[in-house]
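User: Fold this, then the next.

Assistant: Folding the first:
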Amino acid sequence: MVMEEGGQRDRGRGTPATAGGDGRQIFKELGDQNLDAICLSTYRTACKLRFIQRRCNLHLVDIYNVIEAVRDAGLNAVELHAGISVIRLENLVSSLFNQLSKRLPTTHTINARESTVLLVEFLLAAIDSEPDSRLTVFSVKAMLSTLCGGKLIDKLRYVFSQVSDSSGVLVQSKFDGFLREALKLPTAVHEGPSFGYTHTLARSCFPQQKRVMLNMFLDVIADPPQCLVWLPLMHRMANVEHVHHPVTCSYCRGNGMTGFRYRCLRCRGYQLCQDCFWRGNASGSHSSQHQMKEHSSWKSPATKLGRALSRTLGCVSSREPPHPIYPEEPERTLNLANIVPTRPLENTSEAMLLSSSAPESSKSLAAAQRMNEEHALIAAYVNRLQSSPSSVDSPSRQDEEHKLIARYTSRLAETDSSGVIPNRSINFDVNKQKRELIAQLECKNREILAEIKCLRAQHDAACQASPEKGTTNPTLLAELRLLRQRKDELEQRMSSLQESRRELMVQLEGLMKLLKAQAAGSSHASPSRPSPSTVRSVGAASPPVHMYPPQDSLAGVGGDVQEAFAQGPRRNLRNDLLVAADSITNTVSSLVKELHSDDVREEEERLLNGKDRAG
C-alpha cells in the first residue's frame, strides 16, 4: 500500500508536475531577484536558498516544529525509504504552517495556504531535479530539516539521529542518502554544477574515521566539507540581516552597510558592502584577487582597543568549544510500538503503515483490534438498551449476550494458553516502570534531605563550638595562645612608646623655655636690634592658629610644645619629632647668630675705649 502511494505521486500532483521548474511561481520570484549576478557560488547558493526559506516562511519554523509535524502526520513510525503521496506531503506542510499561524502574535500573520503551495511546489521541483528520484519519507525529512530555521546545531543533531544506528554510530549508507536528498536543494535552484551529488561525497567527509559518533559528526559539519559549505553560510546570513555598520562602502559610496562587511587586508581603509563584494566590484588600486576579511558585527575603536589590551594582558578567557559535548551513547527511548492507539484505525492504509513500522508487534496489534471490536460491540449494545428498554427480555437480547459471553470466554482461553494478557500487560508494565521510577526518585530525595540535615548539623556545631570541643583541639589552642601573646607584646610596646614620647615632649619643653629665656636676655642687652626669635614669634603669631585639643600623650606638657605639635588632630610620632627637631634647629641657629653679634659689638666697644684712652 505504501509503495502504491509512492507510485501515485505524479498522478496526485496534477498540473504543476508538468509545468516544469520555470513555470512555478516561486521560481519566477527567485529569478526577479537577479541573484545569478553573484560571482561566488557559495554565496549565490546561500542567497537563493535563504530567499526560498523566507518566501515560504520557513525561517519562522525551527527543527522542533518540524519534528512535531512529522509525528502528527505519522511519518516517524514509517520506514525512511518508504514512498508517500503528494496529498500526504501537502497535509504535513499545511499542518506545519497552521500550527505556526497559531503561535505567531496577532501583529504578525502569514498566509498559511500560500506558504503551503509554494513550499510543496519547491519540494516537488527539488525531487524532479534528478532523474529516477521519488518522494520518500527520508527526502521530506532531509529537505525540511535543512530549509527550516532555528539553530544549526539542533538541525545537525536531528540529522545525525536519522543517519545513525541504535548505538549512536554513523551509518555511511544513510549519510550518503542524506547528502543525496539535501543536495537536491542547490540543484533545484540551478547550482548543481557547484554543489551537485556524487557517490564519493559521503566518504570524502569522513575519510579516515571508521567509527563516527555525534561529537565527531558535529565537529566535521561545523567546519563543513565543500559540498555543504553553503549550509552554515545561510545561517550566518540570517544572523546578520539586521546588523548595521556605520561605514561607507568604498565602491558604491553607500552611507552605512547592512549585513556582512568586507575589509581588504592589503588596501588600507578599503571596505565593501556585501552586495559589491559578492558581485566582484572593485575600484582604485583594489583588486578582486585581494584577500578580504568578513565582519559580521561592528566594533567601535574603543572596543577594539580594549579587546586588544585584554588579549595582550592575558585577561581574555579561552574560547569555548563550538558546540556542547554530548554523551556518546544515545538515550534509550521508550518503545511505543506496542501501545494501543487512542482511536480506532479509520482505514487500512494506516494499519498497513503501523504494521510495516513494527512487524514484531503484529500479535499485540491484532489483540488490540479485537479488544477495540469488543468494546465497540459493548457500546452499541448499551446504546440500544438505553434507546429501547422494552427489549430487555427479548430473545434477541439473550442471543447477543450469549455471543458476547462466548467472545470473552474465547479470549480468556487464549490468555490462559499463552499466559500473557495482550492489552493489560502493557498497562501493568508501564505502571510498574512508573512506580519504580517514583521509588527511585523518593529514595534519592531522602538521601539528599539526609545529607542536607547532616551538613546543617555540622554547620551549627561549627558556629556554636563548646569549650570542651575547643580544648580537644591542640592546634587551635596553640594559635590562640600565640595570638594572645602577640597582643600583649604589642600593647606593652605601645605603652612604652607613649611613655617615651611623653618624656621627650617634657624635655623639649624645658629646652624651649631655656632658649626663650636666653633670647629674652640678649634682646634686653641690645634693644636696638630685635632678635630673630622675636621676629619669628611675631611672624608666627600673625596668622590665625588652629588649636586642637591636646592628645592624651601630651597631657602635662607646656603650651609651646603642644603648639609645635598641633598641626592636625592625628600626627605620627616620627613626624612630630621631625617637626620639633626643625624648630629646635632654627632656634639654636638664631641664638648662635645673636651671641656672635653680641661678641662683635663688645669687641668694637673695647677698641673704641682703647682709642679714647690713647687720645
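Now the next one, as you asked:
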Amino acid sequence: KATKDSQVIRHKLPFLWSQLGEWSAQAALEKPVDIRKNYFERALEMLKSEGKTSSVERANVSHRFATFCEQQYLAHVRSPDVAHLRNTSDDLQAEVAQLEAEMRSLIGNNQYQYEFKKYDRQLKKTKDELSQYRAKYQAHVQASAHFLQIAIEEFARSLAMTTTGHEVDTVIRVCSLWFSNFRDLPLNQAIAVPLLHIPSHKLIFMSHQLSSRLSTQDSHLGQKTLQKVLRKLSSQHIFHTFYQLFALTHGGRDGGPMKARRSLRNVAEEPEGDEHRVEAAQNLIQILRSEPNTQTRVRDLEMVCSAYLEWAKHRLEKSKPGAESPIPSEMKIRSLINVQVPIATEHLDPDPTGKYEHIVTIQSYITSFTTAGGINLPKITRCVGSDGTVRKQLFKGQGDDDMRQDAVMEQVFELVNYLLAGDRETRKRRLCVRTYKVLPLAPQAGIIEFVPDTTPLKSWLDRAHPNYRPNDMSEGEAAKRLHSARERRADVVDAYLTICARLKPVMRHFFTEASKLPMAWFGMRLNYARSVATTSIVGHMIGLGDRHTSNILLQEQTGEVVHIDLGIAFDQGRQLGIPELVPFRLTRDMVDGLGTSGVEGVFRRCSEETLRVLREDSNVIMTVLGVFKTDPLYSWTVHPLKLRRKQQETVPAATIRSTRPGPDTHSTMDTAGGMEDQPMEADTVEKLAERALASVARKLDKSLSVSHDVQELISQATDPNNLGKIYF
C-alpha cells in the first residue's frame, strides 16, 4: 500500500509543482525567472522522467506554464518601465548624433580645442549611459521574446495532448500571440512545428481569422506556416473552411461597393492587397482539388457555392413579402439534387477523424421562394435535407451590408456562450445568446440561417397594439407628435411622456397568446426574461446598435429573443442620424413582457450573473477582440451613408434630417458626398480599433460592483430623457 501511495504522489508531483508556480507568480513571491526554473521547468522535467503520467495531467501542466509565460510576456510588453527604457535610449541616441555632428564641425579649427574636448567628454559619458540603457532594454526584449516563445509552444503542446477544458480560449490565445508577432522570424522558426501539431479540429473556431491573413505578397516564414496550418485544417475539415476560402476568392468582385469598403478597412490596404489574398485562396483551393481525400468534396462545394452566390446576387425589382414566386429556371440552385454536401446553415460538429460520414446533406431545393421584405429583398429559400426535413435559408446579395461583420459578431456570441456554459450559476439558469449561422460568399453576399418559428417584434406589436388597446394613440400619430416636437425644437421629453400616457404597452399578451397552460406560460416568460437580460448585457458590452423592433425576433415556441442584423457595433449607433443614447433596448413593451416584477427579480439577477461572468473572463474577451483588431477584413467603422440608410429603413428620412446632431454625432452625416473616394489613413483606423477595444475594457472594468453597474445600465435604458430623444 505504501508503494502504491508513493506512486500516486510521484504522479501528482508535476501538477503540484506547477500549482505552486502559479501561486508564487500570483503572490509575486519570487522573480519570474526563478519561478520558471524552480517550478514549471522542474515540473516538465518530472513529466519527462515519469513515463506513465496521463496526457490530461501533462496538458494541465503545459497550460499552467503557458499561462504564466503569457502573463510575463504581456507584462513586459505593457510595462511603462520598458517604454521608458526605449524612449530614453532613443533620446540618448539622438543626443549622441548631435554631439558627433558638433564635433565634426570643430575638426581642424584650433580655436575651439576646449569646446572640442568638452564635447568629447560629454560624448563618452552619453555613450556609456546609452550603452547601459540599451543593455537593460535588450534584456527586457530577450526575456519578453523567451516568454512569448514558451507560451505559444506550451499552449500548442497542451492542445496537442488532450482535451484540457480550455480549448477555445487556448486557441484564441495562441492566435493572438502569433498574429501580434506574425513577422518575427526567430519566433516563427521556433513555433512552426508546435503549431502544426495542434489537432486541426481545435482550430475551426478561428478559421475566419486564419484565412483572412492569407497572402501571396508576403513570403516570410509566418505566412508559410499559416498556409501549412490552413492546408491541414482544410484537408481534414473542408466543410468548415471552404466557405471562407470561396468568399476570399470573390473578395474584390463587387465593383463599386468594394471601393467604399477599402476606405474603411481595418488595415492600410492597397487595392492589390485583396488581389494577393484572392490569389492565395485560389492557390489553396487548387491544392485541395488535387488531393485524393478532398477533390470530390471540393468539386461539390464549388458547385454549391457558385449556385448560392448566383442566387444571392440575383436582383429582384419588387416582391411582396410572403408571396410565393418561382425561382428562375436558369438558376443553378435548382439543379442541386442529392449533393453530398452538408446543409450550409445547419450546425456541423467537428469530426476529429475528418470523415464526416453520418451527416445531413442536400437532397434538393424547392423551386419557389418568398422575400423577407425590406430594401434589399433577401430571398427565403427552402432546402430539403437528406433526412427529409425542410429548412429555410436566407440569401442576401442586394445592398451594401458586409456580411462578414455579422459573422464575426456571431463568433463573439459563440465565445460568450462558451463562457456562460462554463459557469455554474449561468449554466444553471441556461443563460445564452441565441446564435445563427452567417456564411459570407462575397463582400456583400451570402447565406444566413433562417431561425424557425420566429416573428419580428415589430410585426407582433403592430398587430397587438390596435388589437388589445384599440382606443390608444396609434404608432403613426405618436411618431408625428415627436417629429413635430423636434421640428419646433420643443421639449421632446414632454411629448414622449404625453404619448406614454396614451399608448400603453401590450407585450404581456404575447405569452398568453402562445400558451394557455399556466406552467408553459410561466416557462415562456422566464425564457424571455433570461434571454432579454443576457442579450442586453452582451449587446452593451460590444456596443451593439440599431436595435429597432425589426431587428429583434421573438421565438414563438420558447419566448426567447433573437437579435439579427449585427453590423452596427462598438457604439457606432451613437453616430446615427438620431443617436442611440441607451445601452440596450428596454422600452416599456420590453419591460411589460417581464411581468409584474418588471426589471426586478429574474431580469436583474440574470443581468448581474451575465455581467459577472463577462468580467471574470474579460481577459479572454479582450484577447479575441485583439485578434479582430489585426484582422485585415474586419471594419471598425461604418460609412456615414450606410448609417443614414440603416436608420431610414425604420425612421422617416425627414425625422432624421430634422434631428440636430448629438454630442457624439459626426457632422459628415449630412455632407457625406464624395467620401467613398477618400481612403481612411492607417493610423486613423488603428485609433478607431483602439478606441473600440478601450470602450469594451471600460465596460468590463471591475472598479465598481456588478449590482451598481447593472442598476446604472437599467436606469439609462429606461430613462424618459433618453427614450424621448431617440424613439425607436
